[in-house]
């Protein structure tokens, strides 16, 4: 096998991993919605995150990643935002919100990240990024329908979940600027720390507890084994074989699959305004993804030029 053949095979495997990842994460919105038929949001969030720590820890051992936690203070802040805030809010949003709509609103994360990075990291927004943010905000107005406050509550929770996710990414960027951090190790430890407040909240809102039906058990197993452990393995596998811009396509595909799966399995039908808003948000995500791919190719070309 020539080096060129090996590179193509590596890229093909990376693309396959990315496609499987998008399917797992996209369909998980339906799985979580179904799981909430048997349990309250915060207990589900607590069970999902706390049980996921074990397979992620095993993955650390198998891949020979560092078992020692990253700086504890930073990791706890990431955990509060990415696990406590993000997972807790999205589960709460899913309780009364549609799976497809919630997935799209949560994946406004990249736009909040652009704004937060501009405000706190000094990263300037370029023309296409401003356009993407404007499109996403227009889409948000159509999907949330702020003039109908009662119907907007679940959507607002989903947007808040995306904002927490974005804030955690800003904290991670700050941490990575100070020292090198293993992504899988940080993910595992922040999930451990972030699951603790969720466990406390779960105890306070436990009620009758989950109904341990086959449907709930399957939903929980899916989230723990596929949605977390396997998904993170696939993400890291793809990142080693593809550019970050190409890997970002999974971010674009996930809410699209979520909307399609919710429509097919749950019979969700967005209104005309919601559909238009979702299209604007997904279009803005597409714009950011294409811009990232083009920027990656330009950087690669600039790097390769002296060696030609």
Quick structural overview:
This protein is mostly helical and 308 residues long. Helices cover 81% and strands 0% of the residues.
Based on CA atoms alone, the radius of gyration comes out at 20 Å
User: How much helical structure, as a percent, in the residues?
Assistant: over 70%
Mean pLDDT across residues: 88
Taking the sheet with the most strands, its summary is: none
Distinct helical segment count: 12
What are the secondary-structure elements, in order, as H or E? HHHHHHHHHHHH
**Uncertain residue ranges:** 299-308
Strand content: under 5%
Distance between the termini: 24 Å
Morphology call = globular
Got a strand count? 0
Question: What structural category characterises the helix and strand content?
Answer: mainly alpha
Total domain modules: 1
Question: What report would you give on this structure?
Answer:
This protein is an all-alpha fold and 308 residues long. It has one domain (9-295). The protein is built from 12 helices and no strands. The protein has helices at residues 3-35, 41-62, 72-96, 99-106, 109-120, 127-144, 149-178, 183-204, 214-239, 244-247, 249-266, 272-304. Helix 11 packs antiparallel against helix 12. The longest helix has 33 residues, at 3-35. It is globular, with a radius of gyration of 20 Å.
